[in-house]
């Protein structure tokens, strides 16, 4: 059977900001703000508070005292003075993965059950060449919540493990507000991007490809719009929803840099510099959401990031944050952190390549990385690309030894004359090779799900400890900055 296979280079989802663009309409301009209240619940008069400050509530997350509002461009300056408000700033956003895509018309694939498994070196590495499958493959009593770009609801490799209760958090109009393919339907979980389906296949694939836990149940919580963006408030709301739904593991192959120090914002229209507080509101919101999920019994697993830096060096992270977000008006002074990866009660995952080496792009750091997992590497990819012989890389299928193969949807978009998405077309199920810490995290989520499946009444803290104790030690003896406690291993986790 003929299939179209995409070779994709996946970067970590990174944060940016949404800001007004027209100085001439400053008084009328409204943008999104994130507000965190001092108490972890919303005041009874929250509507009056926001209205008096000139805002309109867009999204409410009462479980952790967080709001997203629309308000004029000077809103934050006044909001942070309010006695009940801890932090307020223009809403941070998360951008979808930056992908280099090469379509390969492949006639060599024989479509039979698990016919692509031999190409999944990464899954074989984590399962001891499939030995863990003989012990436990998961079940639908254990549920992984995948917060991502949705799921291909027609893909035969993942559909059998997709459970009822999946949700969409992308509002009508999508990220830009004008995407006509986004209707805000709560149950529209169809993946337009591919990232979420790739993650799901890595966890629970059971068809042409196999996941680490091929019989585990999962739900999809779609937070990335068709055009690729998401507000952090959508992601935080999805974390709370997944926890309330009783999932056992939450996979978050996403994140970005956030400050926990002095945060300043310079209005691009007026040049006025305002101190926004000692924390970015989203960092506080994520921290509260992680604690909430843990109390509900869910372990959160997240990617370490793809900037290739020592993420435990907070000065270095701050420097990078100012480079990235300085053009948007932000200035960070003091310590900056990757979130949610730096939050203590999550499992932060670095990425390794085919020889157990730390991937070129993977973040690392003592006290930052908990465990590692194969996410692929691109050493040969870059070598052939820089040498101008990339055609040879493709012709010799060298990506099969570096990248990670999993399921994706094949979709196309229809645009109007202004470049606005009018609709999208689903072409069919497909597969792609991708690389990134986004590909490493779901392998850890799958092993965590297997631990839940074989241990009654186990807590998230004990699952995290089990993941670390059963990891295969790499690098220096014991814990190190590159691999944490070592490479996650499903077979060892199930044997101990």
Can you offer a commentary on this structure?
- The protein is an alpha/beta fold and 496 residues long.
- Helices cover 23% and strands 28% of the residues.
- The protein has twelve helices and 21 strands.
- The strands form five sheets. Strands 10-11-9-13-16-18-19 form a seven-stranded parallel β-sheet, sandwiched between helices. Strands 8-1-21-20 form a four-stranded mixed β-sheet, covered by helices on one side.
- α5 runs parallel beside α6.
Question: How many beta-strand segments?
Answer: 21
Mean pLDDT metric: 88
Q: Beta-sheet strand percentage? A: 25-35%
* Spatial strand order of the main sheet: 10-11-9-13-16-18-19
The low-confidence runs, each spanning 5 or more residues with pLDDT under 50, are 1-6, 8-28, 99-112
What is the CA-atom radius of gyration, in angstroms?
22 Å
Principal-axes geometry comes out as globular
Describe the SSE topology.
Elements: E1 3-10, E2 14-17, E3 31-37, H1 46-52, E4 56-61, E5 66-71, H2 75-79, E6 85-90, E7 92-95, E8 99-106, H3 121-126, E9 143-148, E10 167-168, H4 195-204, E11 217-222, E12 229-231, H5 232-244, E13 249-252, E14 256-266, E15 273-277, H6 281-295, E16 299-303, H7 314-325, E17 330-339, E18 346-352, E19 371-374, H8 379-386, H9 390-395, E20 404-415, E21 421-434, H10 437-454, H11 460-469, H12 490-495
Parallel strand pairs: 1-21, 9-11, 9-13, 10-11, 13-16, 16-18, 18-19
Antiparallel strand pairs: 1-8, 2-7, 3-5, 3-6, 4-5, 7-12, 14-15, 14-17, 20-21
Helix pairs in contact: 4-10, 5-6, 10-11
């Amino acid at each position: 059977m003929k299939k179209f296979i995409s070779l994709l280079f996946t970067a970590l989802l990174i944060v940016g900001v949404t800001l007004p663009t027209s100085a001439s309409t400053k008084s009328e301009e409204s943008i999104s703000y994130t507000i965190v209240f001092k108490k972890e619940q919303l005041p009874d008069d929250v509507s009056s508070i926001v209205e008096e400050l000139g805002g309109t509530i867009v999204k409410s997350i009462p479980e952790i005292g967080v709001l997203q509002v629309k308000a004029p461009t000077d809103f934050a300056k006044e909001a942070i003075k309010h006695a009940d408000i801890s932090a307020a700033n223009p809403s941070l956003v998360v951008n979808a993965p930056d992908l280099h895509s090469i379509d390969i018309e492949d006639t060599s694939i024989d479509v039979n059950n698990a016919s692509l498994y031999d190409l999944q070196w990464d899954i074989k590495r984590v399962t001891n060449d499939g030995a863990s499958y003989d012990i436990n493959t998961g079940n639908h009593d254990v549920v992984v919540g995948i917060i991502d770009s949705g799921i291909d609801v027609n893909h035969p490799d993942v559909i059998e493990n997709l459970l009822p209760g999946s949700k969409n958090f992308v509002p009508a109009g999508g990220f830009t507000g004008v995407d006509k393919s986004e209707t805000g339907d709560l149950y529209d979980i169809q993946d337009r991007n591919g990232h979420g389906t790739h993650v799901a296949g890595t966890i629970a694939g059971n068809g042409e490809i196999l996941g680490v836990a091929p019989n585990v149940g999962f739900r999809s919580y779609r937070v990335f719009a068709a055009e690729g963006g998401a507000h952090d408030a959508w992601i935080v709301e999805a974390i709370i929803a997944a926890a309330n739904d009783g999932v056992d593991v939450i996979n978050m192959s996403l994140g970005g840099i956030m400050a926990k120090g002095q945060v300043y914002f310079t209005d691009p229209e007026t040049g006025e510099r305002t101190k926004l507080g000692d924390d970015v509101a989203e960092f506080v919101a994520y921290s509260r959401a992680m604690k909430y999920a843990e109390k509900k019994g869910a372990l959160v697993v997240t990617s370490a990031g793809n900037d290739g830096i020592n993420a435990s060096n907070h000065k270095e992270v701050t420097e990078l944050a100012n480079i990235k977000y300085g053009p948007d008006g932000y200035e960070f002074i003091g310590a900056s952190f990757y979130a949610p990866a730096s939050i203590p009660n999550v499992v932060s995952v670095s990425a390794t390549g085919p020889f157990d080496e730390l991937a070129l792009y993977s973040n690392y750091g003592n006290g930052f990385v908990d465990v590692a997992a194969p996410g692929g590497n691109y050493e040969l990819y870059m070598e052939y690309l820089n040498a101008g012989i990339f055609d040879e890389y493709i012709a010799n299928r060298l990506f099969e030894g570096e990248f990670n193969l999993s399921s994706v949807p094949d979709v196309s978009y229809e645009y109007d004359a202004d470049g606005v998405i009018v609709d999208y077309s689903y072409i069919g199920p497909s597969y792609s090779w991708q690389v990134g810490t986004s590909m490493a995290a779901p392998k850890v989520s799958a092993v965590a799900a297997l631990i839940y499946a074989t241990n009654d009444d186990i807590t998230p803290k004990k699952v995290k400890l089990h993941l670390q104790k059963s990891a295969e030690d790499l690098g220096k003896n014991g814990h190190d900055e590159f691999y944490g406690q070592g490479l996650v291993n499903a077979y060892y986790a199930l044997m101990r």
